[in-house]
Amino acid sequence: MKRFHGIIATEDGRYTLAVLEQRNNKLSLTRTKTWDSHKTVHNALLLNTGVVLGIAAYWQSDRTLFAEAEHIQATGGFRFNAVCQPAPYNHHKEILASNIVAVAPDDAYLATIPNYFADSVPESYLAISPGDGYFKIGVVYRRQLVCVYNMAPAYEESLAGHLARIERYLKIRDPQLIFPHTICWLSSEKIPAVEESEVVHIPVDQFEDTEVMQAAGLACLQVSENAVPRFSGPTFENNFRRMRAGVYLGGVVLFLIAVLLLIMPLGLNAYTGWQLQKAKAQYEEVLLSNKEIGRMVSQNKQMAEKILRMNNTFARQTNWSQFLEAIGTERPRGVYFDRLGTKTAADNTNAIDVALTGWTDNEKSIMEFVNKLQKKSFLSNINPSSIQRDKKNTRLIRFKVMFRLILQ
After folding, report:
1. 2-235 and 316-406: same fold?
2. CATH says 316-406 is which class?
3. In the CATH scheme, what architecture does the domain 2-235 have?
4. Separation CA 31–CA 27 (nearest Å)
5. Predicted model pTM
6. Radius of gyration over alpha carbons of the chain, in Å?
7. At what angle do helices 291-314 and 241-289 cross, to 10 degrees?
8. Is the peptide bond between 153 and the residue preceding it cis, with omega within 30 degrees of 0?
């Protein structure tokens, strides 16, 4: 089974792809796709697919002279030349350079669709496809597309006059040319009746629209190379398209290997941590099952905590001495203390949080005492957290002062 691919570049900046499959010497449309031409991801996903690109063209007599810099001329024409503008040609050719096997006029379907999708057509015929307000008429002579005309208006009663004018022009251009009188009608619309002409209906219902039919007609050029003139053949980059899929696959494999190498240490660390947690749980289970060992561990833990508190509290005697001296010397008259509490600061092992409670009969004395303590460099966070009258003796004021002692 062989596959053939054609892409049409539309005027609104889109690509339409048609994929044909050949089975038992018959072609059938199997897939279509449309995307914006600037979306590089879709273009890259063509991978090693070889495509025939269709470009909008117009047809001129081979006697017409024009500047090569302003036009690109197709080769292989008969009496007429297909011509396109350089800007769109170079633009689309650059985008799809890695996949192009040929660039041809987008009118190619007029010569290829009848040959491959009809049961029997003569070697020479007129292919007619209704457009938006005009008939697109292609003259096919000995299975080769000679020229294409866009004739308006697209009325059935006007068709005979259009064909007569084309015949007169071609006779003047080449008296030896035998003008065909078989019409291949490329549309699902009503088949026109034209005097002295045989009309053959080409089944095109499988094509969603004219753009898909144009792309399919371009794909047929990979089967028959001589049916339509070409603007160019395979690009230089196309020579490497078959190995491109291997390169992409190799890149993906290398990426996956890099990801695995990155994940493996994390996995090993997680597994090691799990093993340590498991061993720790087993160890703790043994300790809990042995009451004597558990009792000894509990006693050792309590002794360690007591030793740690004693070290934190008394290892730095200098500031403790200064602190106790400051309480005695800075205490205002009439201020008395009844409790002193300490604990190691949660956020600083080199500091102790102190709570000092007492009573007085003058609230100003408490603030005087706090102001004096704030001047000591080894004290911080001084805060009179509670000042209220005694419930039993309302003459007295009970207070609580919180501060932090910085050890040295």
Report:
1. no
2. alpha beta
3. 2-Layer Sandwich (3.30)
4. 12
5. 0.59
6. 47
7. 100
8. yes
